[in-house]
Amino acid sequence: MADIFDTKIMCSKCNLVMSKGETFRNGFRIRRVECQKCGEKINHPGDMSEYNQFVELKNKEFKVKLRL
After folding, report:
1. pTM for the full model?
2. Domains and CATH numbers, the chain
3. Count of beta carbons in the 10 Å neighbourhood of residue 44
4. Residues 6 or more apart whose Cβ sits within 8 Å of residue 50
């Protein structure tokens, strides 16, 4: 299955080709494209869903019973 970020993405405001980049958050690599003229950024939806699942799991409280 082809990834949408493998194609050229045009900025909706400037009609220029957006440049590819990446951001690292909590050890996750999040791919993104950014317009050099207006600064609009679009994060990869698959990477963002993985990161959001991690954050939800990290913030969840667990109840644990300890027994001897």
Report:
1. 0.72
2. 4-59 (3.10.20)
3. 19
4. 28
